[in-house]
């Protein structure tokens, strides 16, 4: 009994610690936690203003449409809020028009409702409406209920028009709040994605190099490397999503206009670096497959692997710089990356020279040498490309009007 109580207490303490850590992150720096709090706070503000307008100012019959709309279109970027507002308004107008047309033609009976449902659900499949497609049927059903509870054509038209008006008010208030109250500017999302991929690359290379320096790794070791390298697909997708969110946060956002943001290096360079990291991870996966397929030890294997381990160690140093990529120190980091890339290139040349000295069979598919040398060359090319991209972006940003001197 005592042991069970202790376990429950530990679980409770762990949950409280996790909650406390979440709040510390939210108040300490920009991130997902702070974004969540901002969206909640702005949604509540927009809902309150929409209710005040619909209920107290307009004295609407169904004032809930306004705050519902305001909350529904509150998104993490201004651009998404505007796009979703347009789609939502279009969906609601389509649903109300379907109900109005059929209602006035056929009357509010069961057959009319079925026809309204069929047409509204069909329109909701239109790809232009995106995620707001189901709102066509929702609006049509609410409009049908409003239509049947009203008497007289003029009152019914007024009630249906009120629905559209309240949705427009809610969307306008929600979008205005998102634009005017701390509009999200997610420059860092692109960097976070690069940090995550670079950390994965660095950790794998840093683990492989000392093992290869000691000789031929066993099957469990190479198999573990191969599995880790193959599990990066989800991380790549998350990094891509972060880059898309970063780009969207600039569109229609008034915060990008102040002078202090004009020197930002932009996302073209980050997108190129992300693509290079993606290709690099695929190449490292090819290296792990080559090592996993051929573990036979021969006279030349150990000296070759020692040279290859030195190359991977230098490659890990390059990846380590990318784990701390920061727009505010981009030029200094790019220059450091250039130096480390040169060192990695020298280590790669030593690998190639070792294959010549030992007369290794690079064309033999049963031996790993050809694959490993080829992937080393490709890795080096990607590092050189990444270095040049960051140098160009950093130098352009450093010389842009309004850019802060780093």
What does this structure look like?
With 406 residues, the protein is mostly helical. It folds into two domains: 150 residues, no CATH class; 212 residues, Phosphate transport system protein phou homolog 2, domain 2 (Methane Monooxygenase Hydroxylase, Chain G, domain 1, Up-down Bundle), CATH 1.20.58.220. The chain is built from 14 helices and no strands. α4 runs antiparallel to α5 and α12 runs parallel beside α14. The termini are far apart. The C terminus is likely disordered.
Radius of gyration: 30 Å
> Roughly how many Å apart are the termini?
62 Å
Largest sheet: none
Mean pLDDT metric: 82
Keywords: Cell membrane, Membrane, Transmembrane, Transmembrane helix
Membrane topology: Multi-pass membrane protein
Subcellular location: Cell membrane
InterPro entries: ArAE_1
Entry keywords:
single chain, 406 residues, mainly alpha, Methane Monooxygenase Hydroxylase, Chain G, domain 1, 14 helices, Aromatic acid exporter family protein, ArAE_1
Task: Provide the fold topology.
Blueprint: H1 2-28, H2 32-57, H3 65-72, H4 78-106, H5 110-123, H6 135-149, H7 153-180, H8 187-214, H9 219-230, H10 233-250, H11 268-293, H12 301-322, H13 330-358, H14 369-398
In brief, what are we looking at here?
With 406 residues, this protein is mainly α. Helices cover 77% and strands 0% of the residues.
């Amino acid at each position: 009994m005592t042991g069970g109580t202790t376990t429950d207490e530990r679980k409770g303490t762990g949950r409280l610690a996790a909650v406390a850590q979440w709040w510390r992150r939210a108040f300490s720096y920009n991130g997902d936690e702070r974004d969540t709090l901002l969206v909640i706070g702005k949604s509540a503000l927009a809902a309150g203003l929409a209710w005040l307008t619909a209920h107290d100012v307009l004295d609407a019959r169904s004032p809930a449409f306004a705050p519902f709309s305001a909350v529904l279109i509150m998104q993490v970027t201004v651009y998404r809020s505007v796009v979703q507002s347009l789609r939502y308004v279009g969906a609601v107008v389509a649903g109300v028009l379907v109900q109005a047309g059929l209602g006035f033609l056929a009357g509010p009976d069961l057959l009319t409702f079925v026809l309204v449902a069929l047409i509204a659900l069909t329109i909701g499949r239109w790809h232009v409406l995106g995620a707001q497609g189901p709102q066509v049927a929702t609006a049509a059903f609410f409009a049908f209920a409003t239509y049947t509870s009203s008497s007289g054509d003029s009152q019914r038209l007024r009630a249906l028009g009120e629905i559209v008006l309240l949705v427009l008010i809610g969307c306008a208030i929600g979008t205005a709040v998102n634009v005017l109250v701390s509009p999200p500017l997610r420059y860092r999302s692109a960097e976070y994605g690069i940090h995550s991929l670079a950390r994965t690359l660095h950790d794998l290379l840093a683990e492989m190099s000392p093992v290869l320096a000691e000789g031929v790794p066993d099957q469990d070791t190479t198999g573990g490397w191969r599995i880790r390298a193959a599990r990066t697909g989800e991380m790549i997708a998350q990094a891509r999503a972060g880059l898309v969110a970063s780009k969207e946060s600039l569109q229609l956002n008034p915060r990008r206009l102040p002078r202090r943001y004009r020197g930002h290096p932009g996302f073209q360079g980050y997108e190129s670096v992300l693509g290079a990291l993606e290709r690099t991870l695929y190449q490292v996966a090819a290296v792990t497959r080559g090592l996993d397929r051929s573990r036979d030890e021969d006279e030349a294997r150990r000296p070759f692997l020692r040279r290859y381990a030195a190359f991977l160690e230098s490659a890990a140093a390059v990846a380590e710089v990318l784990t701390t990529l920061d727009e505010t120190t981009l030029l200094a980091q790019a220059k450091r990356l250039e130096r480390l890339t040169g060192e990695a290139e020298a280590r790669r040349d030593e690998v190639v020279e070792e294959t010549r000295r030992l007369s290794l069979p690079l064309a033999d598919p049963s031996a790993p040498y050809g694959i490993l040398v080829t992937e080393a060359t490709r890795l080096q090319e990607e590092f050189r490309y990444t270095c040049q991209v960051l140098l160009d972006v950093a130098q352009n940003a450093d010389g842009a009007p309004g850019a802060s001197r780093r």
